[in-house]
Amino acid sequence: MKLGAIVAPAPQGTNVEWTATILPIRRYRDIPAFLSLSMKIAKQAKRAKGSVRYALKTDMPKKRFWTVSVWQDRASMRAFVQAEPHATAVKKFAGWAADGAAFAEWTGPDKKVDWKEVLEKLEKPTFRFQKK
Q1: Contact between 81 and 90 (Cβ < 8 Å)
Q2: Along the chain (132 residues), what's the average pLDDT of each consecutive run of 10 residues?
Q3: What distance lies between CA 58 and its chain's CA centroid?
Q4: The pTM is what?
Q5: Which of 18, 52, 71, 86 counts the highest number of beta carbons within 10 A?
Q6: pLDDT score of 7
Q7: Rounded mean pLDDT of the chain?
Q8: For the domain that residue 86 is a member of, what is the CATH number?
Q9: Which runs of E-coded beta strand occur in the chain?
Q10: How far apart are CA 106 and CA 108, in angstroms?
């Protein structure tokens, strides 16, 4: 399943900030709470200042989820990450995460989400989640 939303296109010819995540979930029983929070985050992204687009891709049988968000600038992206409900998701994810959770950030042109490119970026992530 893929879900995508254009929020507010960036001015033509400008670069934007991209963030992609891969979120494997350890247990099937955690998926309903994870998805509920994910839908709240999608709504948060739609109304966040500086948001350009947000998309979610799922593979339920394998308990794997991917997100990509695009921002007009890094400050807008950081404000989103620190605001609710995303801040709560970061805390809760430690209990839900399976091996392989990671995110990648990059700067590039505003364009339609290309999942192939997103997955390639996640092969060399900016940060890899480590279980404690």
Answers
A1: yes
A2: 52 86 96 95 94 93 96 96 95 91 94 91 93 66
A3: 12
A4: 0.86
A5: 71
A6: 52
A7: 90
A8: 3.30.70.100
A9: 2-6, 15-24, 51-59, 64-71, 102-109, 127-128
A10: 7
